[in-house]
Amino acid sequence: NLQVDVAKTVTKIQPTMYGVFFEDINFAADGGLYAEMIKNRSFEFLFPMMGWQEPNSDRHKLNEKSGIANVIQYSQKGTNHNYCRVTINDASGYELINEGFRGMGIKKDLKYNLTLKASKISGNISKIKFQFIDKNNKVLGETSVVPTSNDWSNYSAQLTSSATEAKAKLKITFEGNGVIDLDNISLFPEDTWVGRKNGLRKDLVQLLYDLKPGFLRFPGGCIVEGRTLAERYQWKKSVGNVEDRETAVNRWNMEFSHRPAPDYFQSFGLGFFEYFQLSEDIGASPLPILSCGMACQFNTGQLVPMDQIDPYVQDALDLIEFANGDATTAWGKVRADMGHPKPFNLKFIGVGNEQWGPDYIERFKVFQKAIKAKYPNITIVSGTGPFPDGDFYDYGMKELKKLNAEIVDEHYYKDPAWFRKNVTRYDNYDRKGPKIFAGEYAAQSVAIASPENKNNWECAFSEAAFMTGMERNAEVVQLTSYAPLLAHVEGWQWTPDMIWFNNLQSYGTPNYYVQKLFSNNKGTDLINITKDGKAVTGQNDLFASAVKDVNSKEVILKIVNANAASQNVSIDLKGAKLESKGIAVILKGDGINDENSFDAPTKISPKESEFKVSGNKVQYDFPAYSVTVLKIKMK
Ligand code: AHR
User: Fold this and answer.
1) Angstrom distance (rounded) from CA 599 to CA 250
2) Overall pTM surpassing 0.90 (yes/no)
3) Is the ipTM of this complex over 0.95?
4) Catalytic residue check, 354
5) Ligand 1 pocket, 409 CB below 6 A?
6) Domains in the chain with CATH codes
7) Are 535 and 426 in contact (CB under 8 A)?
8) What is the pLDDT of residues 182-206, one digit of tens each?
């Protein structure tokens, strides 16, 4: 028997309770959410012809026969360093092919917008042809541009695909002979999210939108920190004109990765402006995290000397101005000029990602002082490192408490049993201390980032069990997010991940549907659900939390049955008059190892049914290994 006290609000549930954590890992940005289809569009990768092939040219013979592409530097200055000089000797044969991000996903009858810069140098190249081709070189769409100018000029054209193909490439051929310079060759599908230019992949944004996330944390993760300080994420380089955003090597390019991706770079076409815009689109509070002057401690651990920390702190202050300042401020003007005169209503800022130890505390203090002096209403998120317990964690927490830290970010990547066992983790947290942001967590079926890890049902329902514990402690736990969020099936470095995609499709894992169930049913007020006066924390493998929603006038119970048998439970709800029927939303797999896949993307997804409410009693049979949300309208 479970008892629910509907009348008494224990605490308010924060609108930020369930959010999303975005990091450009696993091709999440370039090659994923960011809909650009050309890899290395401005020839800026470490090897400037990465992503580009010249199948008919023989560089060793100087390409006397067909032609050659050479990368040339504009100058040492500026942010767009390179361009490509193409010399055509014999128009019959030379081809330049862009391979996309593990191919290009193209859809039948969809239009694709091509843009580029070109400058004629000598001879007469009269036409440049662009074609989608499949692996057999079959043409699946074509367009061309006529280069007219000897100065850098912008050209645009549109291709329509004649077939759906996950592994298309873009072939470029030339008519005439001569030399021409090319740069910023870019290709976007017309069906980006809300049809934006430089836009995002619609199916992926839709999945995020459907979560109704309370916040969007960006841009990471370790990517914030960089392998070295020079490689940290610098938000100022990610805003303004897209062509002027300087490409950088991705932190997940090589190291700490089961699947090194030497062709993993950041174009920053999806930059801070776009992250703020995405937050707004999906109704999430933006939560940017910035470098605190410490490179990833799993890499070099490079530290900025304390007497050189000012530019890092200034970046944080300027970011707040970028988000919230009006157009009379320097950074507010940058935002307004980018097409968003209204402020983005930034409320939170994170200082450092996953840093720990005295080096972190020393740096955090400087940020805290400067941010609070100028922006006392901005809430600062601090970190405790990657440890959910132990000496480093204890030290961090102790010091942060002394500093009156407002919100502390905790991370845990543990096995599923840990999640079930630690459901009481926050029961004894100091109610007067810092609030908690469970900023990165995911149950690991094998081991952190293992290639064998699965997004299986046991991991998902164990996370759900743990989430009932976070929800029961909503007074302390005010933001939570699964991590990582997105992974390209051929470009990942980390497992498990919440949403998997290829060039054409995407699907939510069971973990995604757990997040969706909790987030879509977060309610407004926490109420007590107990068994014999105690919280339901795994007795008979049952886990439970309860809320009411004062807007929809519903009581919402979340019950996880982690047992191999179904359990028939009677629930007494006191303190409200209830409708005689409720809606049950049930999530369950076909056994603990069950998963979703591209072929069966919604195999494990919420199913709704009705149940009877007799006065103030509900008798419900919770299936084996299930997560159930029971919703009852109050009269
Ligand atoms: O989510 C993957 C990584 O895990 C993040 O980049 C980092 O913060 C954590 O170690």
Assistant:
1) 31
2) yes
3) yes
4) yes
5) no
6) 2-12+525-634 (2.60.40.1180), 20-34+193-520 (3.20.20.80), 52-189 (2.60.120.260)
7) no
8) 999 999 999 999 999 999 999 999 9
